[in-house]
Design a protein that fits this description.
about 425 residues, alpha/beta, seven-stranded mixed β-sheet
């Protein structure tokens, strides 16, 4: 028999948006499907090392948020982003590739430079309608075809022409022709990274920034919502429990939320069905070697190597890995509709590829292999996303359901923006109630 409790404000999801909401509006009850808080910001421990759900760092420019998480973490390491690298057709290059053309073979360097100059000569003020158009305007055909197209089909699992441009702000670097020409022949280029430094907790992985902030919150773990009745204002969970609420806020994925709500109009369900995301398998490896690489993370363009990105916890935070060892996290992406197949075999193949890439022996040097299956990695900003999200969010607003965060807004957000999204949602709710 189910038990029913009554609460004033229910929050679905204990990720960073849920955290921000609960800090801004104390006393709410959070329902989390997993057995831990943090959402995508959670860190998993294996072999004495904390592994994140994909490469996570903080480079926020929000001083209030930075002060909060740094105080929570206690000890924080500051690293340099300029040591990030790319791997392309067996060649290591600096990041971003257009500013490090000197690392490419001569023929590739010349072709890239010619196309870059042509792109800038032919430049117009017309806004690029697709990500491919944006890339060719910024970088020319050669870099678009041989780098950005290759990486996009591996990381986002679709062609550059299938993506919109509304996710690019602060993530990709517009081309600077003088810098690019200098970087083709010299390493004396101006720093043009989206951020020069990054911050990472010295203990506890990325979640070390947030763990203590969850300590006093009312969170019900293992509470995966099954049905939501907005007329009766009840939540039913797979466990059989049922709770009633006065107000509902959610940071769970929009399609999941819509599928759980009863009596949703067909147009809203259809819009939610148009929303796509990637999933990710993190293959975490500990090796008894300390001389692998000095980069905090690297991007892998080659399609014959499964991971699209690899990161190194000891280079994110020195001392975070047991002495005499190195830790590696490899991120493999698929579209949410693509099957994984045999994950154990995929992990084994990935460890072998990492050994070939970084120069260790998988049989002799590896002490730990651990995987994390992340069902929702990143929302895909294709050409249907914006209109579909607007339609779903408009209907939810009419039903007085507040949606927030990366998956609740179905929008690519940094960690600070996800947290602030929750805070703003709670502030709006308080304003509606006439509270300061």
């Amino acid at each position: 028999m189910s038990s029913q409790l009554e609460i004033e404000t229910a929050v679905l999801g204990a990720g960073l948006a849920g955290l921000g909401f609960a800090i801004e509006l104390p006393g709410v009850r959070i329902f989390e499907a997993k057995q831990h808080p943090g959402g995508h910001a959670y860190s998993h421990q294996a072999g004495g090392v904390f592994f994140d759900e994909g490469a996570h760092i903080s480079h926020t420019k929000d001083s209030t948020f930075r002060d909060l998480i740094h105080q929570t973490a206690g000890a924080v390491h500051t690293g340099l982003a300029r040591s990030v690298r790319n791997r392309w057709h067996g060649v290591w290059t600096g990041y971003p590739v257009q500013n490090h053309l000197r690392d490419l073979p001569e023929e590739a360097r010349i072709s890239a430079l010619i196309d870059l100059v042509v792109a800038h000569t032919d430049a117009t003020e017309v806004k690029a309608p697709t990500y491919r158009d944006w890339c060719t305007q910024q970088y020319g055909d050669y870099l678009t075809d041989n780098f950005y197209e290759e990486f996009t089909t591996k990381y986002w699992r679709r062609a550059t022409s299938e993506l919109a441009t509304d996710w690019l702000g602060g993530r990709l670097i517009p081309s600077d022709l003088p810098n690019i020409i200098t970087g083709a022949f010299s390493d004396k280029i101006a720093n043009q990274a989206t951020f020069a430094t990054f911050h990472y907790p010295k203990r506890g992985g990325f979640f070390g920034f947030f763990e203590d902030l969850y300590a006093d919150l009312d969170i019900r773990f293992g509470s995966k919502v099954a049905d939501i009745d907005l007329h009766r204002k009840t939540l039913s969970f797979e466990s059989g429990a049922e709770e009633s609420f006065e107000r509902l806020a959610s940071s769970i994925p929009l399609p999941t939320l819509i599928n759980a709500i009863k009596d949703v109009p067909a147009s809203v369900r259809d819009a939610a069905g148009q929303l796509h995301h990637t999933k990710m398998l993190c293959v975490n490896v500990i090796v008894e070697r300390t001389d692998l690489i000095d980069s905090p993370w690297c991007y892998i363009y080659d399609h014959d190597i499964e991971p699209a990105r690899i990161s190194f916890p000891a280079n994110l935070s020195p001392g975070s890995v047991p002495g005499g060892s190195s830790a590696i996290q490899a991120e493999i992406f698929r579209d949410h509709n693509e099957p994984w197949g045999d994950q154990d075999a995929l992990a084994e193949a990935t460890v072998q590829q990492l050994g070939d890439l970084l120069g260790f022996d998988p049989q002799r040097d590896v002490t730990t292999v651990h995987t994390i299956d992340v069902s929702h990695a990143y929302v895909v900003s294709d050409h249907n996303r914006a209109n579909a999200v607007d339609h779903v969010l408009s209907w939810l607003s009419d039903q007085q359901v507040t949606s927030m965060g990366l998956y609740g807004k179905w929008k690519y957000l940094w960690s600070d923006a996800a947290f602030r999204s929750g805070q703003q949602a709670a502030a709006n709710m308080k304003a509606q109630d006439g509270h300061n």
